[in-house]
């Protein structure tokens, strides 16, 4: 099988980002963004998705974290799109439920070729440390737009904003792990009756 890897750069007046991705890795993460909570969440994605993920990001965090978080989501989505290629033999769909103490979240993904986000999470606290939890949605919106994926995120319960966010990112990693797996029964076929994704 050809290596399923990607290296993507995004340079704007607001951010400079490089993402290196290996879909068939071991869960190694080398993350250097100026947003510590984002690094923590992306480490969960790599570990629980078994991806090797390297990210270097600089951004205008002197204003706030918005551009950096959103643009990391965009660039990571682009990397998945490149690494998946034509999607032949792909499992395509993945889902996961993940708990953390009192919190429980469900994530379902389809590499459908159609960007769509359905996001349902309420956070009791508006910030985790200095991180604005509204940016979680912005990250995933950037991801789906550029991965060309359909993504449903539902936090089912939780009282602690850190726990809620962490269950979402862990479940995202697990759902990705299932969806990007090669399905041997497909024998390289396109996982769609349309013949294209």
Question: What report would you give on this structure?
Answer:
- The chain is α+β, with helices and mostly antiparallel strands.
- The chain is 34% helix and 30% strand.
- α1 packs parallel to α4 and α2 packs parallel to α3.
- The longest helix is centred in the middle third of the chain and has 19 residues.
- The radius of gyration is 16 Å and the shape is globular.
- It starts with a strand and ends in an 18-residue tail after the last helix.
Question: What's the short story on this structure?
Answer:
This protein is of the alpha+beta class and 197 residues long. The chain has helices at 36-49, 66-84, 134-147, 161-179, and strands at residues 5-11, 15-22, 29-32, 52-59, 93-100, 103-110, 116-120, 127-128, 131-132, 150-157.
Going by helix content, strand content and strand pairing, the class is: alpha+beta
Q: Provide the number of structural domains.
A: 1
Helix coverage percent:
25-40%
For the biggest sheet, the summary is: 4 strands, mixed
From the alpha carbons, calculate the radius of gyration and give it in angstroms. Answer: 16 Å
Q: What string gives the helices and strands in order?
A: EEEHEHEEEEEHEH
CATH topology: Ribosomal Protein S5, domain 2
Molecular shape: globular
CATH top level class name: Alpha Beta
- In angstroms, what separates the terminal alpha carbons? 20 Å
Taking strands numbered 1, 2, ... along the chain, how are they ordered across the largest sheet? 1-2-4-3
């Amino acid at each position: 099988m050809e290596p399923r890897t990607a290296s993507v750069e995004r340079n704007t007046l607001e951010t400079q980002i490089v993402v290196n991705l290996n879909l068939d890795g071991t869960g190694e993460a080398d993350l250097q963004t100026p947003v510590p909570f984002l690094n923590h969440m992306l480490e969960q994605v790599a570990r629980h998705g078994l991806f090797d993920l390297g990210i270097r990001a600089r951004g205008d965090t002197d204003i706030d974290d918005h551009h950096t978080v959103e643009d990391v989501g965009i660039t990571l989505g682009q990397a998945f799109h490149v690494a998946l290629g034509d999607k032949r033999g792909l499992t395509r769909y993945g889902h996961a439920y993940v708990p953390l103490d009192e919190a429980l979240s469900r994530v379902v993904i389809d590499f459908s070729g159609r960007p769509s986000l359905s996001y349902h999470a309420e956070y009791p606290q508006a910030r985790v440390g200095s991180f604005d939890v509204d940016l979680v949605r912005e990250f995933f919106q950037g991801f789906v737009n550029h991965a060309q994926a359909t993504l449903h995120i539902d936090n089912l319960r939780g009282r602690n904003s850190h726990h809620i966010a962490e269950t979402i990112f862990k479940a995202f990693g697990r759902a990705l792990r299932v969806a990007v797996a090669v399905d041997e029964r497909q024998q390289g076929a396109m996982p769609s009756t349309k013949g294209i994704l």
